[in-house]
């Protein structure tokens, strides 16, 4: 029997075609290339009930929290990207157990990819050696005799024609160094992604207050100021241009404190709305579940207990969407924003407040004296509505501070709790019903008891395998991003001459339907972005991890098209008269980046980069002529949002991302061009952020830089392929393209 990586008892949950669902115990075994489960612990040559071969195309989907048979379980799903119908879905009663399985399975996937890719590289080296050997033999052949020689050419696919692996090439130790660093996080698919209306303020705020080094600069003195220290918390007030805020909303405020508990323990309390919440949240009256959207998103009803002249000021309530995720550094993010819902209308005797943005960022700190420590940030931006909020500023301030004090409530709750060794389980929430909101005598709500998880399950059997044929969303993407270390010192590095073909191209012959305008205040237009706005790996990155301003681009951006259609727009380079076709007529090479935006109307923003030639042996040439697996592991995007609301800037962030691992990329290699179709809709995470951006796209200025990631000293320094700045785009300006058939 193969070496076992991980094993344990699980519970099989399924649905009969006719009748109720059922639960069975099953024993799961993870081997170096196989995941299987049995009716009992396997002995001798016992056959498994179901198996899945683990290869580089396998992915582990995080489906979040779901309720089954009165249990709140944390769900994972393992499937093959090329055969999404073949999957194994598993869950656990506590997050730690599920994350352990996720970590082990991802480890096996990485090991398989490492083995395959190293073998492929060795195979390529053998072909190169044979090619040189035959050439040498040819030179020794007497006249009149001929040997058939074999020549290996770069880009020749000796093992397979294409690949869509989601794991980075591990040909060198340096190539994986980003994954081993704690401040570089892997993005994973999280439910169906954040709802389009919810804002992730933790993207740039979360790590700046921690003890970890970070390149994020959103939390700086120009954005926040310390308002006061209260109950052991630091209370910050937002400092921002008023143009970005609705006039009815207050400035955002947040409390930052340290709690002596694990992230999982704090997350469990933050997510609960049972009787325990009364012990640490003084602003909580009661709460109910309105709708469970997916494992990471739910719509909740929440009544506030603000206790400010209750005889005069009416009580407040909220209906909001809650989204959460766990990051690979062990931190948790819980985001809130108000949402209207048909089953949660205005309640008699209550004023419906509007939560513009809010939530918790729960990040681990280094233990002290053997006790866990966690930094908790709680942000709130709320309009309490009613006359009290408009005419009594003290009312708004009092209520905000009362809600933010929940962080100190968490700290005190854990300081006074000794026994916390039991597995962390999240209690099931009570569904909202008309009777659950009935008012009793004196206007007080009548509470229904909240049912917690059934504790009769064995502690050692705390995982569940759920129905593989469920109707849950099958989409899943694993994306990987980097948080680049901040470097303030300039570095002057001599760029590789072989990466810099001399560019002297007449750009007047190129055109696109999106206007080119170098005016700083231009609208619905594009211009070339300054490469020094982006920091990339310098010549000495292997030794000191320093980043340098990118400087000059490798290619010229000559045109931008803005298209729309009823279906997804693929292979735009085949369109007659496009910039890529014009470049081909002039003997130039083009890189076409087609960013595909899904929706009821499909949009595509197409960037055309042009150069005179591909330098043989350069990193960019290897990328163009390489296979999809190499391209996916190297194509990097660096986004910036110079102008836009702080919430949008935080959601988009400025963290470099390996595009081929974040979303599905389709590469089309033509004789004189390479087109990259970037399907944003393939990633639920990216799609959720996109939903936020599309709604306010006319108010945004966005910059994007594309480059090929350098992993070895020979490939350094990195060079930008090109960078673009698009300003205040109008959706109505997009046109329907006329594409020629292939």
TrEMBL record:
Keywords: Endoplasmic reticulum. CDD domains: START (cd00177). Residues 3-110 form the PH domain. It is found in: Endoplasmic reticulum. Residues 159-169, 486-499 have a biased composition (Basic and acidic residues). Pfam families: EDR2_C, PH, START. Residues 159-196, 437-499 are annotated as: Disordered. InterPro entries: EDR2-like (IPR045096), EDR2_C (IPR009769), PH-like_dom_sf (IPR011993), PH_domain (IPR001849), START-like_dom_sf (IPR023393), START_lipid-bd_dom (IPR002913). SMART domains: PH, START. Signal peptide: none annotated. Residues 224-396 form the START domain. Its main location: endoplasmic reticulum. Residues 466-485 have a biased composition (Acidic residues). PANTHER family: ENHANCED DISEASE RESISTANCE-RELATED, PROTEIN ENHANCED DISEASE RESISTANCE 2-LIKE. This is Protein ENHANCED DISEASE RESISTANCE 2-like. It comes from Brassica napus (Rape). The lineage of its organism: Eukaryota, Viridiplantae, Streptophyta, Embryophyta, Tracheophyta.
